[in-house]
Each structure stands twice: as C-alpha cells, then as structure tokens.
Amino acid sequence: MKETLSSVVIKQEWDIVGARQAGRQVSQELGFGSVDQARIATAISELARNIYLYTDEGQITFEEVRDIPKVGLKIVAQDQGPGIKDLSAVMKDGYSTSGGLGAGLPGVKRLMDDFDLESNESGTKVTAIKWAR
Amino acid sequence: MRVPILKLHNYLLVSIQIELDDQTAMEFQEDLLSKIHETGATGVVIDLTSVEVVDSFIAKVFGDVVSMADLMGAKVVFTGVQPAVSMTLIELGIYLKEVPTALDLEQGIIKLRQELEEK
Amino acid sequence: MDVKQVVLNNSDYLIDRWIHQLDNKSLKDYTSTISDDMINQMNQEFADFVMKSLQQEDSKIESLDQFAEKVVNLGWPFGYITEGLQTFRTESTKFVLDQLETNDKDEFIDVMERVNNWIDPLKIRLLNQYSTNWNNILSMQKLALEELSAPLIPVMDEITVMPLVGTIDTDRAKLIMENLLNGVVKNRTDVVLIDITGVPVVDTMVAHHIIQAAEAVRLLGATCILVGIRPEIAQTIVNLGIDLSQFPTKSSLKKGFETALQMTEQHIVSNESKHEDIEEVLDSIGKES
C-alpha cells in the first residue's frame, strides 16, 4: 500500500531547505520520534544537495508505505541528470567529485533502513525507506 | 539572512538560530573570518542549541571554520549540539574529530580559556 | 456406521494401543527429562481427555481449555501434543476401518472425515493455547528487556554511569545511544562511564556501536570512559583488531570513577581522619621509646 504525501521540486539551493522541512513535517505526521526526524531530514538534505549539485532539476517525493504491522516513510529522489558513472565508488565513504566530505550516499544508506540506487545516462533514482519504530 | 556575531572581550559569541542553507552557511563562514581578523579575537564559541539538522555540507563548513580560524590564531568551540544532531552525524560517518565541543556556552568559555592557557 | 460409538465402545483397547504406540515413537525425545510415572499419568489424562471430548461435545470447549492450560503451564513440549493427537488419529482410523472390513472408497473417506472432525478442533485449540502463551511470554520479555535496557545513573555532579547488561544488537544500540545522549544533555554530564561488565560478548559490531556512542557523546561536549573490560574482552578486542585507543578505557568502574573525578577536578574526602590517628599513635610510640 502506497500513498504519496507530498513532492518537492529541487532546482535552486534554497529548495534543499524546503525539501528537508517538508520531510520533517511528513515524518512528524507519521509519528516518527525526534531522532528519526533528524535522520530523515538529514538524509533528504543529502539527496536534495546531490540533485542540486550534479543536475539541473529533480524531484523528491514522499510516500507512506505500509508493511503490516509497520508504517514507513519512503523517499524517492529522482532526476534526469547525466547519471552516476561509478556506482560502487559513490557508495564508498570519502568519495566525492565536488570537494565535499563524501558522506552523502553511504551516509543516507546508514541513516535510513532500506536503500536502493538506480542510475543510467538518462537519470538517477534513489529510493530510501525509514520504518517507524 | 545573516548570522549575528557578538564580541565579548577577546571572544566572539555566535548563536545559530536559523535553519542553515548552503548560502547562509558560506556567508557565515566569511563573516566570522573577517570578524576574527577585524577584532583580533582569540576564541570563538558557536552555539548550536537551536540547530536541528546538520548535513554533510554544513558539517564540512563547520570543520573548515575550525581549521581556518586556527590558521588565524583563534580557537573555536562548538556548544549545545543536540543529541539527534550528534547521532545523525555519527551515522553519516562524520566524526568532526578536530572540532572541540562543550555542553553549553558556559562550559564552552571555560574550555576556550583552558585551551588558550595551554598555549 | 457410527465412528464415534465404535471408538467409545473400544476406548480402553484404543488407549492401550495408543500408549503402546507412543512409547515406540520418538516421543521419548521430547519427554526425556520427565519421569516415567509422570509420563504415564499425563498419557492417561491425555487419553481420557480425548475420549471425553468425543463423549460430551457440548461441554468440550471448557474441558479443552482446562487441559490446554494444564499442559502449557506444566511446560509439556508442543511436539508431545501434536504427535499424540496424530497417533490418535492414525490408530482410530485404522481400528474403525478394520472393524468395517470394507474396500469401499467412499466409506473410507467418510471414516477419515469423521475422525478428522473429531481430532482437528482439538489440535487447533491446543495450538492456539500454546501460541497465545508464547506470544504473551515474548511480549513480556521484550518489555522487560526494554525496561532494563539502558538506565543512566547520575552519581555526582557532572559524572554519570551507564551500566550495560546483556547482548547488544543494532536496535538496542540505537536505543542505548538515544538514552545516553539525552541523559548527558539533561544532567549536564561532563563524564559518562559506560560499564560493559554485563555485556557477554564484544564483537566488532558491539565495539562499533560503543565507539559510535563515545564519538556522539564527544560531539555533545562530554567524555566517555569505557569501564568493566574483562580480560577475555580485552583479548577479543585486540584479536579482532578493534581500535579503542581514541577514548579512555579502564578495567573497573572504580578506576574509571577515579579518572572521572580527576577530569572533573573533584575529590572524595573521607570524614574520619584514620590515617592521621595512626600516624599520631606511631609518633607517640616513637617518642616514648
């Protein structure tokens, strides 16, 4: 069972903040604790920044997922950018092509419960789920 | 929006009360460094009590501020890091090992004094 | 053909065969820890109960629950119940079919069905009783575990102790970390002593969680001291190549506490000046001689 809760377009730098505020709000509504809210907001921030840094435009969608008896928040970050060339390298800690800390994608994986990354020449799609305790 | 930087004797006090976006964070970094240069401050306390989210970019800015201020002869201490922020940073794999921390503003100033005396 | 009547009329014979059959089966495995007398008594009761359930269908629900409660409370293995009922089914069907002396398929199926209608409800009820009981135990234990998961004990100004007891998995580690960090901020703690005396195994995963907790505490502006490192834990930590050198470790809570006192510039002063008394006595003895 899926239900789309909201969606944010990432085009400008300020949209990163907008995305994580939206994420914080939906996670609050789904009943996540304060620490999980911070985890989710941070993960969204990382995903949104990747879209902003490496592509022209992308979108982050929040969905409610149910897997009885659990409730979860699914975050889908999608763009039509050039794609990620070396998928295994971006999942390594400390790998960065932009001078960052290289904690983005592997960090998101650690902050969330489920994580999936798909990428080709026509775009990248990251799916991450956090289950409410 | 800019982050206000207050001067108290040899110290600079900063309390970040707004949601930091990348732009504001970079501006803050510049403002702080020029203020250090202007005042010749030897210590800086940055209070993060009201900061709810620190992602890898903001963390990098913070880490950089510490190294840059150090080059200019000023010690930086971060205070009031929230438990949720601390946990998220650790899970992201960001340990900020070079960044001195203290529980609150008061402890932060005590820590600065200790570090400066040691030199 | 009334299966019920046939079974009831020959219940003694059937029960005998049933018990005989049980002894031959692997049931012994389940009940090896229980005395033979006890097994005999239980078997008799079990058999009586099954027969009774056939006799008086109306009142069977109540007696069924009673019996189920009894076996569950006595902790009889579930395998005993299923195998016992299974054997009953086989023996009864065999017996009734022998009596019939028929090769008619329909009649054969009819007998099977009647026996099933008798045995199956019993099995389902007993199974439910067992699973309800298991679920209750499980949720109670989970609750109990959460309750004693990670208490944070302020012992002095600026010093807090967190004793960890039991196995640490990822979920518990997160809970512990949350309690730890919130407690540090709430109590304005300078030094936290994490006591792992009660943690049976420290593998790379557990060590990783402890290191993360210590790093997170440092980010808040406090210090972690890891105490209660037993010799075997020290051995495994080094053998696994885990680096715990970034934060202080001590073998006992006592030693860790002394370090914590030094770090927070506190002292414990004894009210009784015993040492001085003894010195005075020694001095006076010296003068006399």
Automatic annotation (TrEMBL), chain A:
Pfam families: HATPase_c_2. Residues 18-130 form the Histidine kinase/HSP90-like ATPase domain. Keywords: Kinase, Transferase. Its EC number is 2.7.11.1. SUPFAM superfamilies: ATPase domain of HSP90 chaperone/DNA topoisomerase II/histidine kinase. One of its GO terms (molecular function) is protein serine/threonine kinase activity. This is Serine/threonine-protein kinase RsbT. It comes from Alkalibacillus flavidus. The lineage of its organism: Bacteria, Bacillati, Bacillota, Bacilli, Bacillales.
UniProtKB/TrEMBL annotation, chain B:
InterPro entries: Bact_StressResp_Reg, STAS_dom, STAS_dom_sf. Transmembrane segments: none annotated. This is RsbT antagonist protein RsbS. Pfam families: STAS. Residues 1-112 form the STAS domain. It comes from the Bacteria.
UniProtKB/TrEMBL annotation, chain C:
The keyword Translocase does not apply. It holds the Pfam family STAS. It comes from the Bacteria. Signal peptide: none annotated. InterPro entries: Bact_StressResp_Reg (IPR051932), Globin/Proto (IPR012292), RsbRA_N (IPR014792), STAS_dom (IPR002645), STAS_dom_sf (IPR036513). SUPFAM superfamilies: SpoIIaa-like (SSF52091). The keyword Phosphoprotein applies. Keywords: Phosphoprotein. Residues 149-260 form the STAS domain. PANTHER family: RSBT ANTAGONIST PROTEIN RSBS-RELATED, RSBT CO-ANTAGONIST PROTEIN RSBRC. This is RsbT co-antagonist protein RsbR. It comes from Alkalibacillus flavidus. The lineage of its organism: Bacteria, Bacillati, Bacillota, Bacilli, Bacillales.
